[in-house]
Write a structure and sequence with these properties.
With about 300 residues, the protein is an alpha/beta fold. It has three domains: about 80 residues, Orthogonal Bundle (Arc Repressor Mutant, subunit A); about 100 residues, D-Maltodextrin-Binding Protein, domain 2; about 100 residues, Periplasmic binding protein-like II (D-Maltodextrin-Binding Protein, domain 2, 3-Layer(aba) Sandwich). The protein is about 40% helix and about 25% strand. It has a five-stranded mixed β-sheet with strand order 4-3-5-14-6. A five-stranded mixed β-sheet has the order 11-8-12-7-13. Strands 1-2 form a two-stranded antiparallel sheet. A hairpin with a 2-residue loop joins strand 9 and strand 10.
Length: about 300
């Protein structure tokens, strides 16, 4: 039995939740993956995976074995990198997940420059506003604009993401301009309701902190949609600055309650906890930190 190949196959199955997907990522047939796992379970005398026709998940023993296997494979990768990284550029596949709006509006030029600097890397970018699991979905690194919950994942802050409350001039003519956070209770709001605070807005000014539960007419997980609906005069929206800035410059939106600040979100790079961060992931995150730091954030 090729123990190392079996470990890699097992880890991929746990990460992806599928024999077929593990085979695709390792460029092996499903039957080859199944044989690696069967050989591994036979040698250990325990069942490592619960199987259905479409999904595979670790047993209790399998989860413990998976965590140790990650360490072992990380050590092997680190040993390989220690003797090769000084001799060659990073190579292989780097799988990245990012939010849809941030990806389409900000990532393109950055990725192009990263690819120029590291031409031997293959970069696969998946844009999604769903909160995908980096481990289960097989991503090397996930970018998130959020207030992060504590988890078993490791997160590195890349930059703050400022926010402001905006509305169209037409909406403000029809409904008036709020001068205090409490006035928001009398307005229609457009909300991004997938944060830890839910649909509540937290605003801080000289008179303290105000928590507002706005009366909302739209709740959506994409800020570009919120911006476009706000431009059409359908309500107030609390938007990331990088989403709203062009509409503000064109006077399609106006900022309100500028003496009050919403707590900034942040762009994080999230990745699974391994003892050694792979060179390609470290270089990618360092590149984002340097680039967005130079540009002054979002």
């Amino acid at each position: 039995m090729d123990k190392l190949a079996s470990l890699r196959a097992f880890v991929k199955v746990v990460d992806s939740g599928s024999f077929a997907e593990a085979g695709r990522q390792l460029r092996l047939s499903r039957s080859a993956i199944s044989k690696y796992i069967a050989d591994l379970e036979e040698s250990l005398g325990v069942q490592l995976l619960n199987r259905t026709t479409r999904h595979a998940s670790p047993t209790e023993n399998g989860q413990q074995y998976y965590e140790r296997a990650l360490v072992i494979l990380g050590e092997i990768e680190a040993a390989d990198q220690a003797v090769t990284q000084s001799q060659s550029a990073p190579r292989g596949l780097l799988r990245v997940n990012a939010p849809m709006s941030f990806g389409t509006m900000r990532l393109g030029p950055v990725l192009a420059d990263f690819m120029t600097k590291y031409p031997e890397l293959q970069l696969q970018l998946v844009l999604s506003d769903d909160l995908l699991d980096p481990v289960q979905d097989g991503f090397d690194v996930t970018l998130r604009i959020a207030e992060l919950e504590s988890s078993s994942l490791i997160a590195r802050k890349i930059m703050p993401v400022e926010r402001s409350i905006c509305a169209s001039p037409d909406y403000l003519r029809r409904h008036g301009t709020p001068s205090h956070p409490q006035d928001l209770r009398m307005h229609v709001s457009l909300t991004y309701g997938f944060l830890l605070t839910g649909n509540q807005w937290k605003l801080t000014g000289k008179d303290g902190v105000h928590w507002i539960q706005p009366a909302w007419s739209l709740c959506v997980n994409n800020a570009e949609v919120l911006r476009d609906v706000a431009i059409k005069g359908r309500g107030l929206a609390l938007l990331p600055t990088f989403i709203a800035e062009d509409a503000l410059k064109r006077k399609e939106l106006r900022p309100v309650l500028e003496k009050y600040a919403a707590p900034p979100l942040a762009l994080y790079a999230v990745y699974p906890p391994t003892r050694h961060l792979s060179v390609k992931v470290r270089l990618f995150i360092d590149f984002l930190v340097e680039r967005f730091g130079r540009e002054g954030g979002a």
